[in-house]
Amino acid sequence: MSSLSRRSLAALALCASVSALPFAAQAQDDKVRVGLLSLVSHAPSIIADERGYFTDEGLEVELIMFQAAQPMAVAIAAGDVDFGITAITGGLISLSEKGAVKVIGGALHEVPGIEGQKYIVSNAAHDAGLTDLSGAAGKRFGVTTPGSSFHYMASKAAECGGADPSDIQVVPLNAVPAVAAALTTNQIDAWGVVPNIADPLVEAGNAVEIGRVADCIPGYQVTTVFTSSRRIQDNPDSVRNFLAAFSKGVEDYNAALVARSTDDADRAEVVAMIHKYVHTDTPADEVAARIEVGAMEIAPGAALNVASVEDQLNWFQSEGLVPESITTDMLVDSQFVESN
User: 323 and 235 in one domain?
Assistant: First the structure.
C-alpha cells in the first residue's frame, strides 16, 4: 500500500477519534439529515423526500450532498449527518471499530440479468492494448480516495485479470467528476463505475468498456445504508421509520427506472425529481436519457447482502487499510432489514 493511502486513512482516523467520542451534535429528534452523492443510484432518498414518504413516517428530512463516500462516514460520527447511503469505505469500517457507526441496510447491488457497473478505459490506454482486464498490470486506476469502493473495484479488476493488486497504480482524485475528467483526458487508464456514468462516456467516444464488475465481484453489495450507533441505541424507532420511507423510495425507483413497469408520466416525474440533485448541469430536455440509461437495481426493502460486506471487510484488512481486529458484528447491525 502506498504512503499516500496510509496518510489519508491516518488523517481520517484522527478526525474520527476526535469527533466520534462525544457525539455532541447527534440529533435525536425527528429532524434528520441524510447524506448522499450526486448519483442516480442515490435516487430513493430523493424520491422519498419529494413524495412525502419521510413526512408520512414522522421525519423532517434535509438532504446533504457529498463529493465522496468517506467524508460522509466522518459526518455521521460527528453528528453532522444522521443517515448515509453510500459505499463501504476504510473510513466507515474504522469508525465502526470505535463504536461510532453501523451499516443497517443495503442499497445499490449487482443483480444477474440487470445492467451493472462497468470497467472502462481511456482511449489512449485502449489504443495501447488495454482491451480487457488481462492487461491491468501496471495501469493507473482512478479512485476518489484510498479505501473507497473504486479502490476495491480496481483491486478486484487486477485479480480478475490475473494480476496481483499491488501491480496496479491507484490514483486518488477526491471526487467522481475529477475521475471522469482524468479518464477523458488520458491522465488515468481505467475506472470501475456505475453505468449511468460509464455509458455516456463510452457513447461520447471518451472511453471504452472492457468488462463488467459483476463478472469480477458476483453479488456485490455496492452501497449500504448506515447511521450512528448512538442513534440505534437512543432512537431505534427513527431508524425503522427512515428505512420504511427509504424502502418506499426504492420501490418507486425500481419500478420506474429498472423494471420500467410504470407509465411514461410516472417515469418522467421520477426523472424530474432526480434532476434536482443529479446531472443538474444538463438541460431538462436532455437529462432523461442520462438518468435512465443503465439504471441499476436498489435492494428492495433495503435488504443487505452480509456475505458481500464480509468480503469487502476482508479485502480492506488484507490491504492493511483497516485493523484485522474489526469484525462483521462491529460493522453491521442487521436487526432492521432482511439480510443474507
Answer: yes
